[in-house]
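Replying to the earlier thread about multi-chain prediction with a worked example.

Input:
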Amino acid sequence: GAVEVSVRSPVACWFSAMLSCFGGSVLSSLMLAEPPVAFLAKGTNVLLASSVWYLVFYCPQDIFCRCFAFLPLRLLVAGMKEVTRTWKITAGVAHADSHFKNAWLVMIAVGWARGAGGGLISNFEQLVRGVWKPETNELLKMSYPVKVTLIGAVLFTLQHSQYLPIARHNLIFLYTVFLVVTKVTMMLTRSTASPFARLEATLGYMFFGMQQAPSKVKSEGALSSNGSSVCDRPSSGQHRDGVKKRQAKKTE
Amino acid sequence: GAVEVSVRSPVACWFSAMLSCFGGSVLSSLMLAEPPVAFLAKGTNVLLASSVWYLVFYCPQDIFCRCFAFLPLRLLVAGMKEVTRTWKITAGVAHADSHFKNAWLVMIAVGWARGAGGGLISNFEQLVRGVWKPETNELLKMSYPVKVTLIGAVLFTLQHSQYLPIARHNLIFLYTVFLVVTKVTMMLTRSTASPFARLEATLGYMFFGMQQAPSKVKSEGALSSNGSSVCDRPSSGQHRDGVKKRQAKKTE
Amino acid sequence: GAVEVSVRSPVACWFSAMLSCFGGSVLSSLMLAEPPVAFLAKGTNVLLASSVWYLVFYCPQDIFCRCFAFLPLRLLVAGMKEVTRTWKITAGVAHADSHFKNAWLVMIAVGWARGAGGGLISNFEQLVRGVWKPETNELLKMSYPVKVTLIGAVLFTLQHSQYLPIARHNLIFLYTVFLVVTKVTMMLTRSTASPFARLEATLGYMFFGMQQAPSKVKSEGALSSNGSSVCDRPSSGQHRDGVKKRQAKKTE
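Result:
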């Protein structure tokens, strides 16, 4: 119902778009007791994100959205978004380390929040749009981006604590390549299976005694892949996110 | 259902009243990562607000409430409330400026939050009372006070950044006079139309291509004016707010 | 539905358990604008709590849970939990005093939040598990532990401000003994009546003109006592709390 909201109340729509763009920054600021409005202080990023938001929702005849239905462009944007994700995670881990020395749980939490923030606060982002689905949240049913961000946060924390015998830039490079390749593969093949499905099923069986896990993971993967089709405008605010992040990245 | 809550749980009722009184302070503190309980440190204000809350809800035979059904008294209280609103906005803008230099978006956000805080967190204030209406919030359907506070925050931020060629005290004076006159007019004529309805419709048509905006704005105006009838006790906690702010102001 | 959640999503279950364990710490940190993730920095406590969480939910044949169905063990754990409650309240009061000098309302609020945090944020803890019951919260229907923590916070604040002519360690001793005795009595007799029921009814009648209070308090007491039966696994996350706190205490 993003289109309906955009017609009824541009302010709520803008606020919701900003939350899904800068959610990671807001959430990690809250966790470290820093001003969550700090993202507004970077005027350029906010202006760029706002202009993309405006073009997406109010452009006559949906020209902007149609451009992004062009597949190579979508691949490019999705790839760039994954690159910024790596940067966010490393920034979050380093930031947390500067607050709490050697608190590896805090580092994981903040890195995860910074990287996957928009997903983790999706309940409150929906509340702004007047939607409230308490029975679903990203912790109950983790989508693939949230999962992969969690793994990334754990890896970078291990590297930061020098438990992983690998140089930092190598890890960043490998993780980014993995993210981009996985994302592009998922978009091209329209595959719904998470690459971790088998691993998860095994772990779930070993540690938590789950039997029905495999089928569940698969259906969940189907859902998340539907949600990430980039310019399927009425579905959700997902694609705004990607587009804005690309813009923000270009300026940096 | 404020009366029912007051009978069932005085604590929740008191907490909800405090939130609607000091919501602006709490919200702007959260946004700037300052202790949101700071308002409790000003013992006098809290005690005054609490005593008014007590008189409103538990006074025998509703004497207190009947006094405020007297029209001139209601006008006086409503006017005073609008005066404190101006003070809050300017305080919020100045406070934000002391944290982030020249971040005009932060200044607008904090000024708005400080001035209209009770409205913006109304969802959570309702949650305390056991009510949950996710489909309505002040961002989706901005009521008139929230709108006018947003405009005020923008104006004072522009003045603070020296984009507006007007002295500060002149702007405060003009804005306060505008607020009081509009409020008193709305109360006297029981008019439901927001003074900005026509302007909003034009802007909405120009920028967001809204067609059905005018009728929508009008019905919304009707709702907000119903809500602000000062001593209509069972409707909501709105009037507690006005009454307490008057008291708080008198002590300052 | 804690068991169902634990099968569907171990992450959400773990997060919910951590919130109910460290909720007081998180809430009081938020109130004083300190990093709410600070509790993760104490690795030992979190690891212990996590291991208990794991044993409770994923132990084969429920061995761990059956052990705690043994009454003397349950009494011991419940008693220890009450002892830590006293410590938490005094720590909260002292901490608040170090931030705001002589702000007795802040001291009460922070002490209360630290001592009864898990209960006060129960709505959000439920949200993590995908449950949302807006019509019930701890402010609307205070359970016995939340009530007694509020009284404790008031007492320790009075003592801290030297209004109570009693030494600090004496007050701690008396309050802890009172807590433990009341809790054990309630568990042994399966009594549902809160010890304050009569006092509350009188106060409610005097100040708030409640007539139907007594019957209401009693039914509420019945509910809260049901919830606190220690190893009634499917009911709620209540017992995890007790168990983990015992572990956390032993390490200190």
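Chain A has one domain: 2-205.

Feel free to reuse this layout for your own posts.
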